[in-house]
C-alpha cells in the first residue's frame, strides 16, 4: 500500500472527525433552539454558547472538502456530483444558518427573530442530515459507472444507508449539543440539558452504531469490532459520567464515541474511499483516486504545519470563552432609531456652537 | 448516463455556466468589501489604540458592525464556491485536481481557519481580551482574508496561465509547486484584487460618511459660516449626534476618499501589468477586449456595430487612440497587436477546428470550435471595469476638494450621487471578473500559445461539466440558489441601511444620549465591571 495516499486517507478521516466533533455540537445547538429552549432568553443563551466558535468549527467542513479535492480529486468529483441535490440542500441550509446566527439579533422584532430561529433550527437539521448521509454513502457505495459518474437519476443515492447516516449525525449532534450546553451554561438550562443527555443518549447514538456495524459486517475486519467496542464503552462511560453529574467527562465520552466510531467506519472500508454498487472494479480507492505523490508530499508539509496550528489556536479560543454563561450574563438586546431629525415641516432642533 | 439525450447535455452545460457566473459574481460582491473594510477597521482600531481619540473607537465600532453584516454573507456564499467544482464541474475537478485542489485546500487550512476563528475572538472579545491581543485578533483575521485571496487567485490564475505541471496520462500533474505559487499571473491578479477591494472599501466609507454629514446639516446640527467653513454643533434629541460624531464622519470621509484614490492608482498599475501578461498569455482575450478584428496598434475608445459578429465584418471603430493598445500590451507605440482574424487560424491550427468526437463533449462533439469570446461582453466588460474604477477615483478627488472646509454641501442630489457612487467600484470589480472569465472561453483552462511547455495544457469548458448531473438538477440548483441569493441580498441591504441610518449609535448603544446619560468610560482596555458579556448575539 502506498504510504502517502494512506496517510491522506487518515488525514481526511481526521478532518471529518474534527468537523463532526466541533460542528456536531453547534449543529445540535442549532436544532435545540426550537425544541429545547423555552423562551427568548434561553434561545439567546443557546446561541451564545457557540457564538464565538461556530464559524471556526464550520471551516473544518471546508477543509475536509478542500483536502479531498487536493488529495483525492476523483473521490471529490464523484461524491459531490453524485450527491448533487442533497448537497444543494446542505449548502442552502448552511447559508441560512450562517446568516441567521449573525442577523438574528440585528433587528428588534419577534417576527424577525422567529424567522431566523427557524433558519437556524432547520438549517442545522438539514446540514447535519445531509453531511451524515454523504459520509454514510461514501462508506457504503453509490451507483457509479466506470467514469465515476452517478447513474440512475438524481435520487439514486436515496437508500437506507443515506437515512441511517443522516440520522446518525442528527442524533449524535443533538446529544453532543445537550452535553455541551450542560457544560457551558449555568442555572436551570444546565440541569435540563444534563437530564436530556441521560435520557436520550442511547437512542441518539443508535443510528451511528447501526452504520458502523453495517460497515463492519460488510467488510469483515476484526479491528472494526474492537473499535466499535471502544465506542460503546465510551458511550457508556459518557452516560455514567452524566448520571454522576460530571459534565466535562460526559462531553468527552461522547467525543470518544465519535472518534472510535468514525475510526471503525473508515478503517473498515479502507482502502476503498467510495465503492461503486454496480461493479467493484469501478470502486474508487486510495490508489486510483489520489493525486500524484508530489502533490501529496506538498500537502503533507502544509498539513503538518497547518493542522497543529489550527488545533492550538482553536483550543485557545475555547479556553478564552471557557466560562459558563447563564441568562443573567446576556446584555439587554438593544434597538435604535435612525439618527435623523424630525420630519420635514416641524422645526429643526439644532444645537449651535 | 444521460448521453442518450444529448440535446440536454449542452443545455446543462449552459446552465452550469450561468450558475457559476451568478454565484461567483455574487460572492465577489461581498469579498472585496470584506477584505477592504476589514483592513480599514483594523487600521482604525490601531489608530484608536495609539491616539486614544474616541472618534477612532467609534469608527472602529461602526465600520466594524457594518463589516460583520457583510462578512457573514461572504462566508455563507463561499461554501458554495468550494463545493460547486465537484458538484457541477466534476470532469474539470478530475482533470485539474492534482494542481488546482492544493491551493483550495491551503486556502481553507491556512486562511479560512485563521479568518473565522480570530474574527470570532474579535467580535466576542471586546473587554474580555487584553486590548493589545484584541487588536491583534482583527489584524490576524484580516491577514487571513488577504491570504485567502492569494490562494484562490493562485488557483484561478492557473486556469489562465497553467504553469508548473507536466501532462501525465492526459492529466496535468504538479511538478513545480514554486512555479504554481509564484505564477506571475497570480501575483499580478493578487495585487489587482487587493487594490480593487480597497477601492470598494474607500468608496463605501466615502458614500456613507457623506450621507451622515449631509444628515447632520439637514437636521440643522452642523452649519457653515460665511466662508463656507463648518460650524460643528450637537443635538440633544437626535441619538448620537454630538460634536465628536462630526469628527467621526469627516475623518471617515477623508480616509475613504484617499484610500479610493490610492487604490485606483494601484489597480491601474496592476491592471496595466495584467494587460501585458494577458497579451503574452491569452492574446485572444486581449483582442476580444478590444473587439479588434484586424491587427493594429490603436486602442478603441468606442466601436460601434455588432462587435459580436463572428466575422468581424460589421465592427466600425468610431474613436481610437493610435498607439495606445501597443502601449498597454507592450510598452511601446508600434507593436502590432494581433486581431481576431489573425488569431483564429492560429488557434485552429494548434487546438483543432472541431471538438473531438468524444462523449465528454456531449452535443458539441464534432462541432466547430468558436475561439472568439462573446465580444460585446469582453469589449464592454473591459471598458466598464476601467470606467467605473476611474469614475470612482475622480469622484473621490472631487469629494475631498468639496469637503475641504469640513462638511458636505446641503444638496440632496449630491448626497444621492455619493450613495450611488458606492456601487461604482463594485461594478468595476464585477465587470473585471466577467471580462477575465468570459474572455478565457471557450477554454476553462486556457492554453498559452506563446509559451512552450504550457501550450498543450488546456481544457475546453464544454468538457468540464459533470456528466452524471442532469439538466433538471442544474435547473433546480440555479433556481434555488438564485432565489435564496436574491432574498438575502435584499435582507443584507435592508440591514445595512438600518445600521447606517442609525449612525454610530447602531454599534454603540451607550452613546444614545436621548435614552440615558452615560459616563464615558471608553479608554483602551476599559473593563465592563460586572458579569454581563460585552457582546452577545
TrEMBL record, chain A:
Superkingdom assignment: Bacteria
Listed GO CC annotations: cytochrome complex; plasma membrane
GO BP term, example: aerobic electron transport chain
Pfam entry (one): Cyt_bd_oxida_II
Segments crossing the lipid bilayer: 6-33, 83-103, 115-137, 157-184, 196-216, 222-240, 252-274, 294-316
GO MF terms held by the record: electron transfer activity; metal ion binding; oxidoreductase activity, acting on diphenols and related substances as donors, oxygen as acceptor
Membrane-topology annotation of the record: Multi-pass membrane protein
InterPro entries tied to this protein: Cyt-d_oxidase_su2 (IPR003317)
Main localization of the protein described in the UniProt heading: membrane
Keywords from the named record: Cell membrane, Electron transport, Heme, Iron, Membrane, Metal-binding, Transmembrane, Transmembrane helix, Transport
The keyword Transmembrane belongs to this UniProt entry's keyword annotation: yes
Compartments, as annotated in UniProt: Cell membrane
Family: Belongs to the cytochrome ubiquinol oxidase subunit 2 family.
Stated name of the protein: Cytochrome d ubiquinol oxidase subunit II
Species annotation: Arthrobacter psychrolactophilus
Gene: cydB
Amino acid at each position: 500500500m502506498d504510504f502517502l495516499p494512506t496517510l491522506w486517507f487518515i488525514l481526511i478521516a481526521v478532518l471529518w472527525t474534527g468537523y463532526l466533533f466541533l460542528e456536531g455540537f453547534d449543529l445540535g445547538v442549532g436544532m435545540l433552539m426550537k425544541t429545547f429552549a423555552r423562551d427568548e432568553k434561553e434561545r439567546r443563551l443557546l446561541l451564545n454558547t457557540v457564538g464565538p466558535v461556530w464559524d471556526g468549527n464550520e471551516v473544518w467542513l471546508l477543509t475536509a472538502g478542500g483536502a479531498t479535492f487536493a488529495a483525492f480529486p476523483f473521490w471529490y468529483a464523484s461524491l459531490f456530483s453524485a450527491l448533487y441535490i442533497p448537497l444543494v440542500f446542505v449548502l442552502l441550509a448552511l447559508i441560512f444558518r450562517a446568516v441567521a446566527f449573525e442577523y438574528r439579533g440585528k433587528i428588534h422584532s419577534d417576527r424577525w427573530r422567529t424567522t431566523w430561529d427557524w433558519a437556524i433550527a432547520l438549517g442545522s437539521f438539514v446540514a447535519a442530515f445531509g453531511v451524515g448521509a454523504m459520509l454514510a454513502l461514501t462508506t457504503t457505495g453509490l451507483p457509479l459507472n466506470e467514469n465515476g459518474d452517478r447513474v440512475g437519476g438524481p435520487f439514486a443515492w436515496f437508500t437506507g444507508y443515506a437515512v441511517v447516516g443522516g440520522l446518525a449525525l442528527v442524533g449524535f449532534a443533538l446529544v453532543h449539543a445537550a452535553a455541551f450546553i450542560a457544560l457551558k451554561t449555568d442555572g436551570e438550562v444546565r440541569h435540563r440539558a444534563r437530564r436530556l443527555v441521560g435520557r436520550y443518549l442511547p437512542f441518539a447514538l443508535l443510528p451511528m452504531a447501526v452504520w458502523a456495524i453495517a460497515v463492519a459486517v460488510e467488510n469483515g475486519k476484526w479491528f472494526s469490532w474492537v473499535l466499535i467496542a471502544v465506542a460503546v464503552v465510551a458511550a457508556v462511560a459518557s452516560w455514567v459520567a452524566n448520571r454522576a453529574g460530571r459534565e466535562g467527562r460526559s462531553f468527552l465520552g461522547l467525543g470518544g464515541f465519535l472518534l472510535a466510531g468514525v475510526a471503525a467506519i473508515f478503517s473498515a472500508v479502507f482502502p476503498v474511499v467510495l465503492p461503486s454498487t454496480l461493479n467493484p472494479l469501478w470502486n474508487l480507492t486510495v490508489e486510483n483516486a489520489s493525486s500524484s505523490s508530489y502533490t501529496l508530499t506538498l500537502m503533507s508539509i502544509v498539513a503538518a504545519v497547518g493542522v497543529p496550528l489550527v488545533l492550538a489556536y482553536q483550543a485557545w479560543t475555547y479556553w478564552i470563552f471557557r466560562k459558563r454563561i447563564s441568562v443573567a450574563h446576556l446584555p439587554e438586546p438593544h434597538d435604535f432609531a435612525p439618527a435623523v431629525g424630525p420630519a420635514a415641516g416641524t422645526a429643526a432642533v439644532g444645537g449651535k456652537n | 448516463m444521460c448521453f442518450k439525450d444529448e440535446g440536454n447535455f449542452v443545455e446543462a452545460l449552459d446552465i452550469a455556466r450561468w450558475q457559476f457566473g451568478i454565484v461567483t459574481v455574487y460572492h465577489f460582491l461581498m469579498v472585496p468589501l470584506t477584505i477592504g473594510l476589514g483592513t480599514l477597521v483594523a487600521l482604525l482600531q490601531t489608530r484608536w489604540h495609539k491616539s486614544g481619540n474616541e472618534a477612532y473607537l467609534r469608527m472602529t465600532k461602526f465600520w466594524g458592525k457594518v463589516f460583520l453584516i457583510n462578512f457573514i454573507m461572504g462566508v455563507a456564499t463561499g461554501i458554495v464556491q468550494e463545493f460547486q467544482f465537484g458538484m457541477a464541474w466534476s470532469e474539470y475537478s478530475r482533470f485539474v485536481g492534482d494542481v488546482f485542489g492544493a491551493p483550495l485546500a491551503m486556502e481553507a487550512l491556512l486562511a479560512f481557519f485563521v479568518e473565522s476563528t480570530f474574527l470570532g475572538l474579535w467580535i466576542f472579545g471586546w473587554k474580555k481580551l487584553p486590548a493589545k491581543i484584541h487588536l491583534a485578533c482583527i489584524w490576524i483575521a484580516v491577514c487571513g482574508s488577504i491570504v485567502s485571496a492569494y490562494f484562490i487567485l493562485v488557483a484561478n490564475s492557473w486556469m489562465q496561465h497553467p504553469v508548473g505541471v507536466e501532462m501525465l496520462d492526459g492529466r496535468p500533474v504538479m511538478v513545480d509547486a514554486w512555479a504554481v505559487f509564484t505564477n506571475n499571473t497570480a501575483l499580478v491578479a493578487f495585487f489587482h484584487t487587493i487594490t480593487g477591494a480597497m477601492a470598494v472599501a474607500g468608496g463605501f466609507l466615502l458614500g456613507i460618511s457623506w450621507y451622515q454629514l449631509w444628515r447632520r446639516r439637514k437636521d440643522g446640527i452642523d452649519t457653515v459660516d460665511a466662508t463656507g467653513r463648518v460650524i460643528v454643533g450637537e443635538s440633544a434629541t437626535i441619538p448620537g449626534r454630538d460634536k465628536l460624531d462630526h469628527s467621526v464622519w469627516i475623518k471617515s470621509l477623508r480616509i475613504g476618499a484617499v484610500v479610493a484614490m490610492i487604490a485606483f492608482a494601484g489597480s491601474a498599475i496592476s491592471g496595466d501589468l495584467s494587460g501585458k501578461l494577458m497579451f503574452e498569455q491569452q492574446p485572444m482575450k486581449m483582442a476580444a477586449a478590444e473587439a479588434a478584428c484586424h491587427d493594429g496598434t490603436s486602442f478603441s475608445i468606442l466601436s460601434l456595430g455588432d462587435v459580436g459578429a463572428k466575422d468581424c465584418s460589421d465592427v466600425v471603430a468610431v474613436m481610437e487612440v493610435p498607439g495606445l493598445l501597443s502601449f498597454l500590451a507592450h510598452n511601446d507605440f508600434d507593436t502590432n497587436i494581433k486581431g481576431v482574424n489573425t488569431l483564429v487560424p492560429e488557434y485552429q491550427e494548434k487546438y483543432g477546428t472541431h471538438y473531438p468526437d468524444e462523449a465528454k463533449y456531449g452535443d458539441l462533439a464534432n462541432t466547430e470550435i468558436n475561439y472568439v469570446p462573446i465580444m460585446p461582453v469582453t469589449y464592454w466588460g473591459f471598458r466598464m471595469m476601467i470606467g467605473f474604477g476611474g469614475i470612482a477615483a475622480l469622484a473621490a478627488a472631487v469629494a475631498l476638494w468639496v469637503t475641504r472646509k469640513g462638511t458636505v454641501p446641503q444638496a440632496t442630489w449630491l448626497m444621492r450621487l455619493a450613495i450611488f457612487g458606492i456601487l461604482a467600484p463594485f461594478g468595476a470589480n464585477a465587470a473585471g471578473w466577467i471580462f477575465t472569465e468570459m474572455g478565457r472561453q471557450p477554454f476553462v483552462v486556457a492554453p498559452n500559445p506563446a509559451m512552450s511547455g504550457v501550450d498543450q495544457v488546456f481544457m475546453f469548458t464544454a468538457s468540464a461539466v459533470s456528466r452524471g448531473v442532469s439538466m433538471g438538477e442544474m435547473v433546480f440548483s440555479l433556481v434555488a440558489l438564485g432565489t435564496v441569493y436574491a432574498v438575502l441580498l435584499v435582507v443584507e441591504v435592508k440591514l445595512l441601511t438600518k445600521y447606517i441610518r442609525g449612525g454610530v449609535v447602531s454599534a454603540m448603544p451607550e452613546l444614545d444620549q436621548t435614552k440615558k446619560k452615560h459616563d464615558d468610560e471608553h479608554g483602551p482596555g476599559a473593563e465592563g465591571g460586572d458579569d454581563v458579556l460585552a457582546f452577545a448575539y
